[in-house]
Amino acid sequence: MKKALVCGAGGFIGAHLVKRLKKEGFWVRGVDLKYPEFAPTQADDFILGDLRDPYFCRHVVDMRFDEVYQLAADMGGAGFVFTGEHDADIMHNSAMINLNILDACYRRNIKRVFYSSSACIYPEYNQMDPDNPKCSEESAYPAAPDSEYGWEKLFSERMYLAYHRNYGMEVRIARYHNIFGPEGTWQGGREKAPAALCRKVAMAPDGGEIEIWGDGKQTRSFLYIDECIEGSLRLMHSDFTGPVNIGSEEMVSINQLAQMIMEIAGKRLSIRHVPGPQGVRGRNSDNRLIYEKLGWKPTQPLRVGLEFTYRWVEEQVRAAYGTTPS
Questions:
Q1: What is the reported pTM?
Q2: Residue 293 resides in a domain
Q3: What is the pLDDT of residues 138-170, one digit of tens each?
Q4: Number of structural domains found in the chain
Q5: Which stretches within the chain are classed as H helix?
């Protein structure tokens, strides 16, 4: 039986990845500061601890794993990443995790390591036009990410590639574009736009109002969790190192995203635009390279994933607050 290690297995993507790896027949060890919040972990072994501690990392990587997935990071949505209040923690914590995991894997002669980077590495100067952002993989340089989160991700990409060149480690690097779905953070400040808007719509009475940061004309693409996991495993099992985008090409404005969720909920709501962190004006996945290298790209319409996600968030709101307004 093949063995896999999932770092960040208590998080949204990590918990879903553990489930998929178990279906694929792996023995899985998960590690994180916390257990998954919304469902019991399916990992065969789950170790609670801090991956910023190099000694803990060596304890976790105490055997030869066939595959290591490094998803652990200090991260969140715009309300966490773009305020500037968490920049030092974001850079320090995530960089330490990646330094420690790479060193521990090198010492155990583990060859195949997956790293989840982010579309936040792309230059702000290529994402000023909400209708025509440029996010092809080679456009990452000259580097100018719009957040310290993006700068740390870019540094760590280069570190994984250096281990690949110098030590023969078979690294795989994916640049995720706004992954969403059930069992993800939906309140508290670290949630991303789809979950936040699902919560706002679920909590608003029909005919009421929701708030959106900025003018709502900023654009993004959003990828459903199942397709993220599928793309990640295809990349991991390919002979392509990356970096490569894993995201949807269905670009929408935040206003359009909100309207889509309202339609799913069957509610007529007005939007009030308020000041708040927004990130770049436009971003969309460019899937030419992943299709060229893997013969695959995501195809599920955004609305399908939003329907699953809204129903799940609606259940969470009902459980937390007793009921949802009608």
A1: 0.94
A2: no
A3: 999 999 998 999 999 999 999 999 999 999 999
A4: 2
A5: 12-23, 54-60, 78-81, 87-107, 148-167, 193-203, 225-236, 254-265, 288-294, 302-321
